């Protein structure tokens, strides 16, 4: 998942960089398109998206595989166990929801802290 996320991030960065280079000078004169902001968007936001793909998609694959294997196993051993497996689905969903909320909260806090450090570093130099 990490390799797929890195390949996707590299592809998105290349496409974004190509689009930035295709802009005329007036676009770069706009204060919202200053170099610090462009670097922030191209590098740091792409890293955040990479983490999202590598972590969340990985978790989704693991949970889906666990559920499928559990349900098949339960069907092979008896339908009673299938009911137990189906009863665990809301618990898995709740745990994943809670984990996603906590992860996004801490990632947002981390992103804001990195932006602040980046801004101070850019202003100092």
Describe this structure in words.
There is one protein chain. The chain is mainly α. It is 90% helix and 0% strand. The protein has 5 helices and no strands. The protein has helices spanning 2-21, 25-29, 35-77, 79-87, 89-124. The two termini are 37 Å apart. The model has no long low-confidence stretch (mean pLDDT 83).
Q: What integer is the average pLDDT?
A: 83
Largest sheet: none
Give the number of DSSP strands. 0
Low-confidence stretches: none
Distance between the termini: 37 Å
Structural class: mainly alpha
Dominant shape: elongated
Portion in beta strands: under 5%
Total number of helices: 5
Helix content estimate: over 70%
N-to-C order of helices and strands: HHHHH
Oligomer: single chain
From the alpha carbons, calculate the radius of gyration and give it in angstroms.
22 Å
């Amino acid at each position: 998942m990490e390799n797929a996320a890195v390949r996707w991030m590299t592809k998105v960065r290349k496409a974004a960089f190509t689009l930035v280079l295709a802009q005329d000078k007036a676009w770069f004169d706009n204060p919202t398109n200053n170099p610090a902001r462009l670097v922030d968007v191209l590098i740091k936001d792409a890293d955040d998206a990479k983490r999202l793909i590598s972590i969340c998609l990985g978790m989704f694959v693991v949970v889906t595989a666990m559920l499928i294997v559990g349900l098949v196993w339960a069907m092979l051993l008896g339908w009673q166990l299938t009911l137990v497996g189906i009863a665990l689905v809301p618990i898995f969903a709740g745990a994943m929801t809670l984990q996603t909320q906590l992860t996004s909260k801490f990632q947002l806090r981390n992103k804001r802290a990195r932006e602040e450090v980046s801004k101070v570093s850019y202003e100092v130099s």
